[in-house]
Amino acid sequence: MSDASLRVPLPERLDLPAAAPLREALLPLVGKPLVLDATGCSTIGTPGVQVLLSAARSWREAGALLSVEGVSPACEAQLAHLGLTTDDLCSKEQAA
């Protein structure tokens, strides 16, 4: 991961009330290398997952790197219940 990547912390509870503010915070950053810091996040609900999946798609389409770091085992389990892994929430850096 490049040191030039921006970091955005995820809220403790990424649920319905937190989903829209996260979406609004991410929109102006689309296309910039970004790390979502999940170290303080203990719960990821479906609305939060929808925002993260949409972000991953937007970053992929922009050819930019988006990664998620510090995902707790509890959040990994919540993702697994939805048939997802942390990799599903990340873009892959496009070849130049």
Structure description:
The protein has helices at residues 16-26, 46-62, 73-81, and strands at 6-9, 13-14, 34-37, 43-44, 66-69. The model has no long low-confidence stretch (mean pLDDT 92). The chain is globular and about 30 Å long. With 96 residues, the protein is an alpha/beta fold. The protein has a three-stranded parallel beta sheet with strand order 1-3-5. A two-stranded parallel sheet has the order 2-4.
Series of H and E elements: EEHEEHEH
End-to-end span in angstroms?
A: 16 Å
Superfamily at the CATH H level?
STAS domain
Mean pLDDT equals: 92
Radius of gyration over C-alpha positions, nearest whole angstrom: 12 Å
Oligomer: single chain
CATH topology: Transcription Regulator spoIIAA
The tally of beta strands, per DSSP, is: 5
Domain unit count? 1
> What fraction of residues sit in β-strands?
15-25%
Uncertain segments: none
CATH architecture: 2-Layer Sandwich
Strand order of the largest sheet: 1-3-5
Sum up the structure in keywords.
single chain, 96 residues, alpha/beta, Transcription Regulator spoIIAA, 3-stranded parallel beta sheet, two-stranded parallel sheet, 3 helices, 5 strands, STAS_dom, Anti-anti-sigma regulatory factor (Antagonist of anti-sigma factor)
In short:
The protein contains 3 helices and 5 strands. With 96 residues, it is α/β, with parallel strands linked by helices.
Task: Itemize the secondary structure elements and their pairings.
Layout: E1 6-9, E2 13-14, H1 16-26, E3 34-37, E4 43-44, H2 46-62, E5 66-69, H3 73-81
Parallel strand pairs: 1-3, 2-4, 3-5
